[in-house]
What does this fold into?
Amino acid sequence: MIAAAVALAACATAGGEPVSGTIAVTGEDYSFSGVPEVVASGAEFTFTNGSSAEVHEMVLVKIADLETRTIEELLALPDEESETLVEFQGVLVALPGEAGGNPEGEGSSITVTEPGRYALVCFIPQGADPAVVAEAMQGGGAEGPPDMGDGTPHALLGMWAEFQVEEA
It folds into this structure.
């Protein structure tokens, strides 16, 4: 699931205080913006795709409590190993220029509840066909993820962000 990336897209919090409420994240080619460094438990993330051409997703994972490796190191691990170091929290997918939604139709936000270290990552491959992704989001690909081609995953192009969740 997680495989090497480049930049961290984070904005500073006011006075070091955890950001609470709704946090509006924007996915661009190839970064996330609007991600605070520290978030209060109970905060809700929404997602909008600011790209005019690429499909993006916001996969939210909680990183294992004792894990100290950087996101770049975690992304470089084989899938079998990296999947044991993160706990999937949710995913929002958005076509170019649209707001994100859960592929199963279960809402348009993800709430973080437990303190710890988290990451947002986009694994959509570069150049994925928006029509294929749209069909899969509407139930067209019931057996696992759709074949979106063999382009470089956006995470490997720098589309990830890390943040800390603290008790509210």
Observations:
- The helical segments are 71-76, 79-82, 130-137.
- DSSP finds three helices and nine strands in the chain.
- Strands lie at 22-28, 31-33, 38-40, 44-49, 56-63, 86-94, 110-111, 116-121, 160-166.
- Residues 14-166 form a domain with the Immunoglobulin-like fold (CATH 2.60.40.420).
